[in-house]
Structures are given as C-alpha cells and as structure tokens.
C-alpha cells in the first residue's frame, strides 16, 4: 500500500490528509481490498466525540449596508471572542470556514458549556456594539462516530446534521442538539424541546434548548 512522503524522505502522519488520499487511491485501484482499506481508514481516523458547529446569523443586511470589509471585521471579532471558550471547555477548534466554526469536544456536556459561554460573550459584546453590528450565532451540537483528519477536517453524519442545525435551522442564540447528542446528555436538568423539520429531502428530529429560546426573545 502506498504511503505519501512529505518530500524530505519522511512519511506523512498516519492520520494526515495525504495518508487518507493514499488509502482512497488504493481503494480505487484495488476494489477487491475495499473492506480491508475501509477498516484501516476507520482505525486511523475514527473517533467518537461531540461536534459543535457555530454559524453566525444576520449577515445579509449588514453586508449590503456596510460592505464586505465590515462582514470580515465581524467574523474576526467573533473569532477573537469565541475561540478561547472552546479550549477553556476542553474542546478543539478544528477549522473555520467563513463565519462558521467546526469544533470537537470529548462529550456533549462540554460542548454545551462552551455554547452557553460563547453566546454569553456575544451578548456582552452587543451591549457596547452599534445595533446594526451586533453579533449573533446559532449552534448545532452532534455526537457520534466521525473521521478526524489530523485535527484539520471532519467527516461524519453527526457533523452534517450539526451543520444543518446551525446553518439552516437555528436562529440567533439558538443551541440545537441532534437526537444522539441529546441522548448523550442523559437524564440531566437541561431543558430541551423536541422538534421535527423536513430539510434536504430528509425528516430531521432535533432538540432545542429552551433557555436559548428565552434568551433570544429578550
């Protein structure tokens, strides 16, 4: 099986993107070994963790009114305020894409603690920011089996679902859980409301944190 080199005689780490690409190339070239290669990919990259996806909300009007530079400034402000919370609650910031944050946590309780903190930090900032430059976020939290590519990229059903919750469903200050994430919390005092929506051709059941709803309405 081919192992990619970094050009200096050293092999790439076993869980790197080049290593994954090499395994996928082998799968294409040797379809008879697909099952064995799939197992190797899962062993190298597979993890069971909580996923937190943050999406900033309310940008369309801001961008049209103030332009793209203001849009970038607001994203930068969000990063400065929110990213420290991730590490403080035991998580990892895996990547940023425009106004999205992709994070991993060891469990859903840690992800929820960070989500609460992030929304609190944004609300505090909004006390001094002009109203048309207020910062809001919606957060989707999933839990389950994922592929972690060297702490640089994520793949998995719970990643996809958390993205849909934050980007397509959540409104400002919303904290939403996939079914698996809510189950992982167990019988706690977290007050959630079950909801169901049809999106992208699938029926998606999710749970919304009630306290987040109250905060958004105030």
List the helices and strands and how they pair.
Layout: H1 17-29, H2 34-45, E1 46-57, H3 59-66, H4 68-88, E2 92-97, E3 100-105, H5 108-126, E4 136-149, E5 153-155, H6 157-169, E6 175-178, H7 179-185, E7 192-199, E8 202-209, H8 210-217
Parallel strand pairs: 4-6
Antiparallel strand pairs: 1-3, 1-4, 2-3, 4-5, 6-8, 7-8
Plain-language structure description:
The chain is an alpha+beta fold and 218 residues long. It has a single domain, classed as Nucleotide cyclase, GGDEF domain (Alpha-Beta Plaits), CATH 3.30.70.1230. 46% of the residues lie in helices and 28% in strands. The protein contains eight helices and eight strands. Strands 1, 2, 3, 4, 5, 6, 7 and 8 form an eight-stranded mixed sheet that branches. The longest helix has 21 residues. The N terminus and C terminus are likely disordered.
Short description:
The protein is α+β, with helices and mostly antiparallel strands and 218 residues long.
Strand count, sense and closure of the main sheet? 8 strands, mixed
CATH third-level topology: Alpha-Beta Plaits
CATH hierarchy: architecture: 2-Layer Sandwich
Radius of gyration (Å)? 19 Å
Structural domains: how many: 1
SS-based structural class? Answer: alpha+beta
Shape: globular
Low-confidence stretches: 3-9, 212-218
Average pLDDT over all residues:
88
Give the end-to-end Cα distance, rounded to a whole number of Å. 59 Å
β-strand percent reads: 25-35%
Helical percent range?
40-55%
Number of E-type strands:
8
What string gives the helices and strands in order? HHEHHEEHEEHEHEEH
